[in-house]
Amino acid sequence: MKKYPCNQADSLHITIDNLDTVKELVAETESNQVEFKETTGQLERAMETLCAFLNGTGGTILFGVTDKGKIIGQELSDKTKREIGEAIRRIEPFATIEVSYIAIPDTTKSIISIHAEEQRYMRPFSYRGRAYQRIESVTSVMTQEIYNQLLMQRSGKYAWESLTNPNLQITDLNEQAIMGAVRGGIRGGRLPEATIREELPTILEKFNLLHGGKLNNAAAVLFGKDFYNYPQCLLRLARFKGTTKDEFIDNQRINGNIYSLLDAAMAFFFKHLSLSGKIERLYREEELNIPYKALREGCINALCHRAYHRPGSSVGIAVYDDRVEIENSGTFPPDMTIEKLLSGHNSEPQNLIIANVLYKSEVLESWGRGINLMVSECRRVGIPDPEFHTDGSAVWVVFHYTRSTVGYNSTSTPQAPHKHPTSTPQVNAIVGAINDRLLSVKEIMEIMLLKDRKSFLYSYLYPAIESGFVALLYPKTPKHPKQKYHLTDKGKELLKQ
């Protein structure tokens, strides 16, 4: 059985992953939420029905079942799986869909289940440019009147990121993160300098996050502090031993806003990927197994363009001995081929409000160039081009690497961030956070939205101190109870740069 990332069939409150569940569905006969098909030779008609389910309250299609409810199964091949994935991609807009393969004991056949949960704020859905509706057990083309009604509901103010949350208050947002985004936008020339002096509500209104005194979901995703109402603001991090998922070395789950999750992802890479270096003039330049910029761009794409409307979704990062995989819920834009993806294309953000704020705060460097940046960075250090995949329900990028060298004729060493004498992205980050202030560890971590003290010390603070960018207020007593940190002249010069 292969399962796509969505595991819960919410509209029917079941998980379709075993033969007993299939038998229960078959016993209910065909309805406005269940349809049987003998084989995927009827895939086109089945996808029209799936589209109709999406325009209703969700539903399930079972292949390998006769219209009388007899389980017969069908032979399963890689070609069949590819055809299903390609068919799912023809549904517009992106839909969360679960595909399961349930083997029939003592045979070579399987039942194929395709399930769509209710996704009312994304309706109307269409398949091959045409919308369908389900009435009882009959699928038909949707009337123009119903289509127009659903289309108006799906207009910008009804998109998930635009929906207001009456329980979300400005005090639930991280003010330091908001002002950090503003400072980034001013530095990059994407926001006027006067923005820094404006009141918080005014800034949120200009970011299109506050309307009529009410915050929308995008505000929580971007700047939230607590996420018990937003379980989808989740980052899964795993370091596996070897090249399979058989054994964990490290496994983490982190909830947070986009800025904190991006920081956590990059810290995880620096923790588990090796560094190798070359001498560039008078300085030793460090490079991860996979270029920092390529990994960062992959994470930004995953966090920015993913589908947020499903509470159980997340972004996943898996590090193996030979590759890194970054996965998110979502899909490529309709008719977007790999060739178009790699040759340059217009940006079509899944979440326009979120993407716009990330662009203004200079996290998104440009529109529609992220793929090319990842490819060029990998080529620069001599590792394979990243691979981009989608199965109609999730998107993932794969970076391949070797553990020996990264584009240089030198030996790679395990990461020991506190021993690096050069300016790394982590050092740059802590220098920018301290700025012209005298701060404690706790205060710096709060500004940087970091929670893991050990990771902060070894990935940020110690390298900055040993590189001569940051100094201690009480250098002779490093563990002084009132210890604070400030920039050296070297650190101030780096800050100017």
UniProtKB/TrEMBL annotation:
Signal peptide stretch: none
Domain Filamentation induced by cAMP protein Fic-like C-terminal span(s) in chain numbering: 425-488
Superkingdom field: Bacteria
Span of domain Schlafen AlbA-2: 30-139
Pfam families, per the entry: Fic-like_C, HATPase_c_4, SLFN_AlbA_2
InterPro entries noted in UniProt: Fic-like_C, RecG_C_sf, Schlafen_AlbA_2_dom, Schlafen_AlbA_2_dom_sf
Name of protein: Divergent AAA domain protein
